[in-house]
Amino acid sequence: MSSDKKLTVKRLVIFLVIAFLPFFIIIPVMWAVYGEPIYTIEREDAAVATYLLGVFGMMIPSAANLITRLVTKEGFRNSYLGAHFKGKTGYWAASVIVPLGYSVLGALAMWALYMGGMSFSDTFDPLGMQNTGLFLLQLAFSVIVFFPAFGEEWGWRGYMMPKLMELMPKPAAVIAGGVIWGLWHAPLTVAGHNFGVDYPGYPFVGIGRMCLMCTALNAFLTLITEKTKSIYPAAFCHSVNNNLGLEIIFSIFGTEKAQEKMTEMSDVGTMLPYLAVLGLVGIASFVLLVMDKDKKEAVRQKEAA
After folding, report:
1. Which one of 33, 46, 263, 277 is most buried, by most CB atoms within 10 A?
2. Domain ranges of the chain
3. Is the pTM of this model over 0.90?
């Protein structure tokens, strides 16, 4: 291994240790204090604690990026902090349109597969004034959620992924990065975040599901980050993904009858349509990343000839 790659490995290991340690320390401590998984407690003080944990926890990867750059004297060259629009507006638009699209498609797939033959009008009320207002409010709130989303993205897509792509082929880096990102959530998943604790195979099924979701989403987030050489589109995508996901879309536009039906369904049932649609987005992004690599290689060979 060359000295440059050794330095990259060193920086990546330092980054990952700093990024992973806080949750692996804080979550067990909070579990000990409250006496049960923190995300299953229905108390106001626990709700405040989980909210703060979510907001500040999402800033940990950016802190790891910053600390690693300072400790290893890497500096801030290639930091992805610039905003590059020229010729890239399609990718900026996709950062909002794509997460909205797979959430809506996931909700439609859930209606088609699990609503027991209910008509579209019995399931959704897309034109109601109150529903439209709630949707616009959630979309506006995504601007606030952007800041903690940036906290994750500048760490994962702005530091981890470029380092992984220096060390291995791009397809392998996307998969490795997605699994690492999913495992970073493992303490939260064990504590009941996202999936609760009462599903078959807890917590390993939940951790595995998180790794699959993160790998699919990592492909798209890496694509728009590499295409724009900016971290902001990925942060916008992350904020919309978190703030207007399938369940939120369904809770806004779903009728009372449909929401009652949804509460009767298992968590597996509500997640499968979302996973399927997100998986298709991940596969398409993965192919585009590989094609981009092949295209650049062809240009280099042509220039060399």
Report:
1. 277
2. 80-304
3. yes
